[in-house]
Write the structure tokens for this entry.
Amino acid sequence: MTTKNSLTILIRRPPYGQIHAAEAIRHMGGALEALQTNVLLVDDGVYVARDGQDAGSTGWTSLVAPLAKGMAKGARVYLHTPSAQARGLLTDEHFVIGVEPVDDAGVARLLTESDLVMVY
């Protein structure tokens, strides 16, 4: 999952209502210049990769496009399957193509193998 000089950005918060997820995605873009960058979506962070988001009149910008752009540049995005299931979301039906599902053991492995971890 990881290589030397790797960063995992752990996103636990939803994409709207708070700045945390947007800041995490912004940091992902910058980190890609120098590090193998992984994004790990757990808890309400799973909504960041939900396909077809519409922020509506919330004043927030959808994070799907910047997430996909980061993936196109080499970021790997992992989705904690139990978190998605707890929210009634099925991986194949609701998430951006290319997002990789992981279970609890996968989350633990990703975090312990990463050189750096940022939590949002």
About this structure: The first helix runs from residue 20 to 31.
